[in-house]
Design brief:
The protein has 249 residues and is an alpha+beta fold. It has a single domain, classed as 4-Layer Sandwich (Phosphatase 2c, domain 1), CATH 3.60.40. Helix content is 37%, strand content 26%. It is built from six helices and eleven strands. Strands 2, 3, 4, 5, 8 and 9 form a six-stranded mixed beta sheet that branches. The longest helix has 25 residues. 39% of the residues are buried.
Length: 249
Amino acid sequence: MMSEVWAVDVTRDWAMACDVQQGFMRGLDRAPIPLDHSARCRQVHDLGGDCYDFTPLGHNRLALTIGDASGKGLSAALKMANVQSSLRTAAFFAENDVAGVVKAVNRQVCASSLAQWYATLFYGVFDGATRTLRYTNAGHPPPMLVRRDSTVDWLETGGAPVGLLSDPGYEEGAVQLHPGDLLLAFTDGVTEAVNPAGEEWGVDGLRQAVTRCRGRSADDIVRAIFSSMDEFWQARLTDDATVLVLRVP
């Protein structure tokens, strides 16, 4: 009887942990800015190390995050929760210093995590008044900025993943966005999806999927990307996969 009760408690705690992680990624209230944004995270297990976040900062600005913790499952989810909570706190206290926010997160991760643990992280702040995106890329796959004329910019400026170095010297990048531009951020579980023939979907597959649906809403683009990936994949999920889309109307 005791073992059955314990199993029920574990199941309940696991479900609660899943709800907490999903709550983090549902974000706060949407900001009233000229930006259509959406994201989706699909984990290998119910809990995982991928995350995304949208946080209104006031003054017509929106903070956005996508990250990927080393490892999988419960341990990766707990560590990423530490990253997300640290990032939200730092964002409110240093909202005008994007690189400073990531530096603060890195200090927290280095102080509280085990050796050899790290997370890649892309953090940016979109200003609705000026339509600029200031960002820092901490070792994350560079987001793809597809311009309205179909040219592509890659958002690479930043530094090392958080948790690797005590003082990596993060840099801040900035890009001007225009109506019709589309920003696509993703974790490596998306581009490293492999089909039964051993072929990798890659950045080219992702770009082709975006090209076919870029005129749709951000929600529709996210759904279309996962649909295209699944069609190519034809196999079970082997890595957490997250996609974040910003579309400037």
